[in-house]
Amino acid sequence: MRILTFSTLYPSSARPTHGVFVETRIRHLVASGEVTARVVAPVPWFPSRDPRFGSYADLARTPREEDRFGIPVVHPRYVAIPKVGMTASPALLYAGSLAAVRRLLESGYDFGLIDAHYFYPDGVAAAMLARTLGKPVVITARGTDINLIPRHALPRRMILWAARQASAVIAVCQALKDRLVELGVPAAKVAVLRNGVDLDLFRPLDRAAARARLGVDEPMILSVGHLIPRKGHDVVLRALAQMTGPRLFIVGTGPEDRALRALVSGGGDADAPRARARVITSSRSASNCASSRWQWESTRNGFNYLSLAPLGTSSLKVTRTGRPSSPTEAATIMPFDSTPRSLRGCRLVTSTTFMPTSCSGW
After folding, report:
1. Residue 193 to residue 177: CA distance in whole angstroms
2. Domains in the chain: ranges and CATH
3. pLDDT per residue over 128-166, tens digit each?
4. Is there a contact between 80 and 91 (Cβ–Cβ < 8 Å)?
5. Strand, helix or coil for residue 116
6. N or C: which end of the chain has fewer CB within 10 A?
């Protein structure tokens, strides 16, 4: 079967970790031999590649076409109006992408399905493309697109319209399906397709050797995720003041890198809790992390990919479906209150070493 994957959440050579979870699904789907895929991954138009513009310059540096892992990808430009353009985003995304999709059809790639990821604006724009071209569309809900955006009346109406146009809807967890049903999408139309674990990438390795490479003997806490405020790395860092003994390793990249490093190095007191913390941004260094505990303090995730990582170890009881036998065997989940108090009482749920061989894309 030929499919067309459509999403603004897709990596490029200029932004290699952006939406890598969508690319990973498509790569494995293509590897199954069941489908052939082409990707249309629109990028907001920006006029300058000057590094002074930071991440905006990355948009301008994105190639118009590229090949990623044997899958052809095109990146048409569309107009994105910051802050005030939310309601117009689906129409602008549709208008910027239609010509690129038509060129694919004209080249002989007559796809049988549009595979869209992220409901708003991507899913709505994909539904518009599907109606124009007479193609079926399947839309995957991934988190904020259903948990937050429908709080706005017009986007909510457009999301429900797109769901009606779709042949099927996918949610990456049961909670997102429940939310879609609450919004008015028929339950029978929504399938839950959870994310998997690459057991070649995530596997238990020798703890002693890993700790020797890092030069640590004490217990370790690993806080992994994009270095942005809502991931709560600073909360975990400040919580060290209330703990005795453990070392904290923060693994990730992002705009908060400098602020977190400043927080780690603040004061210069070798006995301060901050002296037990370290920020790691390279995949090579992250491969050496042998943690005693994984900590996620994120305010929201449609599906927390990092919570799957410990399932790659032998320390958890896993059923034949690939899920933990019970939630308490996999993790301790606590309400987020943005203070170190939220970490009190968390227990260590596994003592077996978990080492990702690569953290690329986190």
Report:
1. 10
2. 2-192 (3.40.50.2000), 202-356 (3.40.50.2000)
3. 999 999 999 999 999 999 999 999 999 999 999 999 999
4. no
5. strand
6. N
